[in-house]
């Protein structure tokens, strides 16, 4: 693995997510409110390796489900319909490059994804749909406008 430099306004790592539950959100949209808190930025280059350590609680939130850590990295296990184990960073990226090594879930109907998203819901995501090991999809949205999904 090559150390990551960084990209985009925020990073949300969603893995093995059911499409019905993979909704994006923001706790404070600065295009609709003027009292949003300032965002903490991640400075310099960082390398997060979940095969040798767990997600540091000072840097990552487990926002849904249970994430286990082992020799293969972070494991996002789905035990029942609707499970959507998710980790989300507590930092923002203002520019740079992101590199992710991800093993997609094999289950039909299960989506493994990496999402970069800002507070005003600008979004770029990469999705690997279980049951299809030959294609990846990507989407981009501006200001939360998800009226068109035909850019995959």
Model description:
This protein is mainly beta. Helices cover 0% and strands 29% of the residues. It is built from no helices and 8 strands. The strands form 2 sheets. The chain has a 6-stranded antiparallel beta sheet with strand order 2-5-1-6-7-8, with no helix packed on it. A two-stranded antiparallel sheet has the order 3-4. A hairpin with a 5-residue loop joins β6 and β7. The relative contact order is 0.28. The N terminus is likely disordered.
Summarize the structure.
By secondary structure, the protein is mainly β.
What's the arrangement of secondary structure elements?
Blueprint: E1 12-18, E2 60-64, E3 67-70, E4 73-76, E5 86-89, E6 110-117, E7 123-129, E8 137-141
Antiparallel strand pairs: 1-5, 1-6, 2-5, 3-4, 6-7, 7-8
Question: Key terms for this structure?
Answer:
disordered N terminus, mainly beta, 8 strands, 152 residues, two-stranded antiparallel ribbon
- What's the pLDDT, averaged over the residues? 79
What is the count of helical runs?
0
Strand neighbour order, sheet with most strands:
2-5-1-6-7-8
User: What is the H-and-E element order?
Assistant: EEEEEEEE
The counted number of beta strands is 8
Proportion in β-strands: 25-35%
Which residue ranges are poorly predicted, with pLDDT under 50 across at least 5 consecutive positions? 1-22
Radius of gyration: 15 Å
Main sheet properties = 6 strands, antiparallel
Ends distance: 27 Å
Percent of residues in helices comes to under 10%
Briefly note the structural class of the backbone. mainly beta
Rough outline = globular
């Amino acid at each position: 693995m090559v150390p990551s430099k960084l990209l985009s306004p925020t990073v949300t790592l969603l893995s093995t997510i059911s499409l019905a539950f993979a909704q994006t959100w923001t706790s404070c949209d600065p295009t609709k409110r003027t009292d949003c808190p300032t965002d903490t930025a991640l400075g310099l280059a960082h390398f997060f390796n979940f095969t040798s350590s767990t997600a540091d609680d000072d840097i990552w939130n487990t926002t849904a489900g249970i994430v286990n850590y082992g020799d293969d990295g972070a494991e996002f296990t789905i035990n029942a319909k609707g499970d959507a184990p998710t980790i989300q960073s507590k930092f923002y990226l203002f520019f740079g490059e992101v590199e992710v090594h991800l093993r997609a879930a094999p289950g039909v109907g299960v989506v493994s994804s990496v999402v970069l998203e800002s507070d005003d819901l600008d979004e770029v995501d990469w999705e690997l749909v279980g049951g299809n090991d030959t294609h990846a999809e990507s989407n981009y949205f501006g200001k939360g406008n998800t009226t068109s999904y035909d850019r995959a």
